[in-house]
Design a protein that fits this description.
Blueprint lengths: L1 H29 L3 E3 L3 E3 L4 E2 L6 E6 L8 E6 L2 E8 L12 E4 L5 E5 L5 E6 L8 E5 L5 E5 L12 E2 L7 E2 L4 E5 L5 E2 L1 E6 L2 E12 L5 E7 L5 E6 L23 E5 L3 E6 L8 E5 L5 E7 L6 E8 L14 E3 L9 E3 L3 E3 L2 H5 L7 E3 L16 E9 L7 E3 L4 H9 L6 E3 L8 E4 L6 E3 L4 E7 L5 H42 L10 E2 L2 H7 L8 E4 L3 E7 L5 E7 L6 H16 L8 E7 L2 E7 L6 H5 L3 H5 L3 H20 L15 E3 L5 E3 L26 H6 L4 H17 L9 H10 L19 H17 L10 H9 L15 H4 L17
Helix pairs in contact: 9-11, 9-14, 11-13
The structure holds 2-acetamido-2-deoxy-beta-D-glucopyranose (6 copies).
Catalytic activity: L-seryl-[protein] + ATP = O-phospho-L-seryl-[protein] + ADP + H(+); L-threonyl-[protein] + ATP = O-phospho-L-threonyl-[protein] + ADP + H(+)
GO biological process, one term: response to other organism
Subcellular location: Membrane
């Protein structure tokens, strides 16, 4: 057996050797990366870049078309063509050929009848030694001679200077200040037709550099459909997603006398990546993920993301808030009112907003102006094309300069570190709220500042007030005896919970909140304002006033019934509803006041706040939340789905026990069958709820999982779901402990039990955020796993991270009552 098989093996090896040899020689012949003068490339032949061989040049037919084009594509993904030579002059049949013309001044593409379908004219003088080289960056360059230098100066021509619809690392967008030429990317007309389509993306160079997407009009010109925030020195502000990829693909803006351009690089070993604009006007940053066999393009950024990205969505002086979908995305900046209410009613914001109180600024009398600035925080700055920019001055000087110039309506720092100065003198357009946004300082009349308003009232009303005062002294004596008792009954909430939830009159609510005074505001969300209420005995309550604009009619009608349900829910880990007010149009809920604020303040706050939650405490909080949710799901006859679990809805009492708030109220905002609006908190909503509106107990499990992972990592998952892929990566590396918030001390090396519990907890978090609802455990299973070190745990499945789930169009941030702390 053995002796007969040996010769065969030799033969086999020999055959293999020849096979290998012929493969190598053919590789050397067929897959060159250079084309020299005198050689040619015909349809069917290719150039492949050296190194990793990532890019291939050759002939192709796009989509369903049978026409032939010369293009360059990604070798791993041959239908991803990022550069096309003859975009609008296709070749019929397979007769195309690429070669240098005879005198060596052009690289030309000829068809079967030797017509020139495309050419790169690179030299006026003959370049006898012209060479075209497909570099390993994907750049097709022409040099004179074979010296292999990568310096752009050595190139007579390069494809990177003539982009199609794609920006690769090393390419740029912007303007050449010498000759006025622009580098931009232009979408294909359709998947079957690479000729230039309607959308073009470039960098504006008036004002601060901003990336803008133009919709090109048929007869020339066009309009902006989407812009990023200005470059802030490190990234484009309106694109917080950059945090996901800027390490791998560092961005840069070059502003010199010769050019103002934007580009990015890829660090060595980075994934293949591209930025592309497609024929629907969608801009995508994608990276090639070859994990799991086939490989695919993963989206890292996609814009426009939501209605607020539409240019000037809310008109001049409007502010777009993508998380306020229940009412409408648009509102006016503080100090401004809707210019045309009837247009707004029909959801047309193009008229924008108008200033309420005239500015006190008359040219020539600037030194004495009483105008002041109000900061609008966390926004994408307005269009800067008409703004004036001075990078050389400080914010303080900027403010002075704005105040001194009557035409200045707002200013802002130009870069992220607070330096530089942008001054706007006409319309403020295209302002939206955005994660990691900048601060805009809006010039307003003195009357817009509450304190001054009050003092003016006092001045006018002084004589009246004096007589009122005398009267009230007289009345007060009587009242002291009689009213006091009555007042106690009115506004003090009984300590004994058995007495149930009370109804408050609006007068009472006003009296404990100083008539909803601005200094009593402790939180604001899309659907409500939260005030600190002080009862006459000095005890504090949290007063949550639901925004009427956000309430559905059904919600208003069902309010009392929902309150009754909420009042019936009693658990150590639920925030107890003390009272409510249901008068006229007002819908108000009154809760116990929690000194320690919400989990949000502690896990995402400054490091001193974070430090107050040590690891054991965090684990206990997670357990407490889980128990509260189990009670909602299983504790009463009817299971209650919270629908909106998130750190801002979890308050902490004096002993750091978590109290879940806002259970039940979400329902009040959900439009009935016909309505479109869903209550969706970005980053916390499960995929099936976000995409299809399917609501079940498992939606809460998903949100709980995100809250758990955020609590341990101190990182917001956010609308881009940035946290989940990170946890998954650590899981695959077997390094879960690296997830822990780095701003607080790691468990000591001898705290093995704690480390074990933390890892187990993260594992449970991953099980809760499984894509498919049926793969997630129930909340009581979660509690079982959290409370026992020995219970069995399944392995989580790899999430697919559906990109649609990251960019829903229907979105609102329900309440978030305590998420924005204004105190
Ligand atoms: C392309 O090159 C081949 C030889 O390599 C030659 O036979 C052919 O004629 C050339 N085609 C053109 C159009 O120059
Ligand atoms: C190309 O190089 C040759 C000599 O190597 C030189 O004679 C010719 O002028 C060069 N052409 C250009 C356009 O640089
Ligand atoms: C354009 O890109 C968007 C976002 O990636 C995608 O949803 C859409 O299908 C694309 N359109 C075409 C025609 O490829
Ligand atoms: C919105 O209102 C403006 C006038 O302010 C009008 O010109 C425009 O046509 C309106 N747009 C729509 C879609 O109705
Ligand atoms: C006010 O600012 C505008 C725009 O920056 C500028 O054109 C104008 O000269 C300034 N006026 C004064 C009085 O400085
Ligand atoms: C800039 O100024 C021009 C001319 O005054 C005006 O038509 C345009 O609307 C302004 N653009 C912005 C963004 O304010």
């Amino acid at each position: 057996m053995r002796s007969t098989s040996q010769p065969n093996l030799h033969l086999l090896l020999l055959g293999f050797f020849f096979l290998l040899l012929s493969f190598l020689t053919s590789a050397a012949a067929g897959v060159a990366d250079k084309l020299e003068k005198g050689q040619n490339i015909t349809d069917g032949q290719t150039l492949v870049s050296s190194g990793a061989g990532s890019y291939t040049l050759g002939f192709f037919s796009p989509g369903k078309s049978t026409k032939r084009y010369l293009g360059i594509w990604f070798t791993v993904s041959s239908d991803t063509v990022y550069w096309v030579a003859n975009r609008d002059r296709p070749i019929d049949g397979n007769s195309g050929v690429l070669l240098f013309n005879d005198d060596g001044t052009q690289l030309v593409l000829l068809d079967g009848t030797r017509r020139t379908m495309w050419s790169a004219i690179f030299s006026a003088a003959p370049a006898s030694a012209a060479v075209a080289h497909l570099r390993d960056s994907g750049n097709l360059v022409v040099r004179n001679g074979s010296s292999d230098v990568a310096a752009a100066a050595a190139y007579l021509w390069q494809s990177f200077d003539h982009p199609s619809d794609t920006l690769l690392p090393g390419m740029k967008m912007g303007k050449n200040m010498w000759d006025g030429k622009e580098w931009s990317i232009t979408a294909w007309r359709s998947p079957d037709d690479p000729s230039p389509g309607d959308y073009r993306r470039t960098l504006t160079t008036a004002g601060l550099p901003e990336l803008v997407l133009w919709q090109v009009a048929a007869g020339g010109g066009g309009k902006i459909v989407y812009r990023t925030d200005p470059w802030n020195g490190r990234f484009f502000n309106g694109v917080p997603e950059v945090a996901r990829y800027s390490n791998e693909f560092p961005l840069h803006v070059t502003a010199t006398a010769t050019e103002v351009t934007y580009g990015y690089e890829a660090v060595p070993g980075a994934q293949l990546t591209r930025v592309v604009v497609n024929q629907t006007g969608s801009v995508d940053r994608l990276a090639w993920d070859d994990a799991g066999g086939g490989g695919s393009w993963q989206s890292y950024f996609h814009g426009p993301r939501d209605p607020c990205d539409a240019y000037a969505a809310c008109g001049p002086f409007g502010l777009c808030d993508a998380e306020a979908a229940a009412s409408w995305f648009c509102r006016c900046l503080h100090g401004f009112s809707v210019a045309s209410p009837s247009e707004w009613a029909s959801r047309n914001a193009s008229g924008g907003c108008r200033r309420d109180a005239a500015l006190d600024c008359v040219a020539g009398r600037t030194a004495t102006t009483t105008d002041r600035f109000r900061v609008v925080r966390g926004v994408k700055l307005p269009d800067t094309r008409n703004a004036s920019v001075d990078m050389g001055i400080t914010a303080e000087e900027c403010k002075r300069r704005c105040l001194a110039n009557c035409s200045c309506v707002a200013y802002a720092a130009a870069d992220i570190d607070g330096g530089g100065c942008v001054i706007w003198t006409d319309g403020i357009v295209d302002v939206r709220l955005v994660d990691r946004g900048q601060d805009l300082y809006l010039r307003l009349a003195k009357a817009e500042f509450a304190k001054n308003k009050r003092s003016r009232v006092v001045r006018i009303a002084a004589p009246v007030a004096a007589s009122v005062a005398i009267l009230s002294i007289i009345f007060g004596v009587i009242c002291n005896v009689w009213c006091r008792k009555k007042r106690r009954i009115l506004d003090i909430i009984p300590e004994n919970p058995a007495m149930g939830v009370r109804s408050f009159s609006l007068t009472t609510v006003k009296s404990i909140t100083e008539n909803f005074s601005e200094n009593r505001v402790i939180g604001e969300g899309g659907f409500s304002m939260v005030y600190k209420g002080v009862q006459s005995d000095g005890k504090m309550v949290a007063v949550k006033r639901l925004k009427q604009s956000a309430l559905t009619n059904k919600g208003k009608k069902d309010f009392a019934r929902e309150v009754a349900v909420m009042a019936g829910l009693r658990h150590n880990n639920l925030l107890h509803l003390l009272a409510y007010c249901n008068e006229g149009d007002e819908r108000i809920l009154i809760y116990a006041y929690m000194n320690n604020k919400s989990l949000y303040n502690h896990i995402f706050g400054p490091s001193t706040d974070r430090a107050s939650l040590h690891w054991r405490r965090r684990l206990e909080i997670i357990q407490g939340i889980a128990k509260g949710v189990v009670y909602l799901h299983e504790g009463t006859d009817n299971s209650v789905i919270h629908r909106d679990l998130k750190p801002g809805n979890i308050l902490l009492d004096d002993e750091w026990k978590p109290k879940i708030a806002d259970f039940g109220t979400a329902k009040l905002f959900v439009a009935d069958e016909s309505g479109q609006t869903l209550v969706v908190s970005q980053g916390y909503a499960s995929p099936e709820y976000q995409l299809r509106g399917e609501i079940s107990l498992k939606c809460d499990v998903y949100s709980f999982g995100v809250v758990l992972l955020e609590t341990l990592s101190g990182v917001r998952n956010g609308s881009m779901q940035t946290l989940l892929p990170q946890v998954w990566r650590l899981w695959e590396q077997g390094n879960l402990i690296d997830l822990l918030d780095r701003t607080i001390a790691r468990p000591a090396s001898d705290e093995t039990e704690l480390v074990y519990d933390l890892e187990r907890c993260i594992h449970i978090g991953l099980l809760c955020v499984q894509d498919k609802a049926e793969d997630r455990p129930t909340m009581s299973e979660v509690v079982a796993m959290l409370t026992s070190r020995t219970s069995q745990m399944e392995q989580p499945r790899r999430p697919t991270l559906d990109s649609r789930a990251m960019h829903p169009l229907r979105q609102t941030d329900i309440m978030g009552t305590t998420t924005i702390d204004l105190t």
